[in-house]
Amino acid sequence: MIVKVSKLLQDPNLDILTAMGEVRHLRSSLQDMRSDDKYFNETYDAVLKHCEENEVEVSSPKRKNVSRHLDEN
Fold first, then answer.
1. Which parts of this chain are annotated as the region Disordered (predicted)?
2. DSSP E strands: which ranges in 13-63?
3. Is the dihedral of CA 2, 10, 28, 25 positive or negative?
């Protein structure tokens, strides 16, 4: 997906409207994947499997503390 857009953007005959459309589509697709829990879980599981097959130790992600106070500045 990213490579396709990258190659397209390197074409000297590319018009600006096509370029803008492709970049918008790529951005939208990446945002959708980022917010899709199912996609994330499938990708994470595939990475864990790959690490296990290659004997790579995986540590658990650290939880970030989020402030519950609103910034009043």
1. 54-73
2. none
3. negative
Q: Whole-angstrom Cα distance, residue 55 to residue 67?
A: 37
Contacts of 33 (CB under 8 A, 6+ apart): 39, 40
Number of helices (H), then strands (E), belonging to the chain: the values are: 3, 0
**CA 32 from centre of chain:** 9
The amino acid at 46: A
pTM of the model: 0.55
Q: How far apart are CA 56 and CA 59, in angstroms?
A: 10
pLDDT tens digits for 32-64? 888 888 888 898 899 999 999 999 998 877 777
Start-to-end Cα distance in the chain: 42
- The span from the CA of 9 to the CA of 66, in Å, is 39
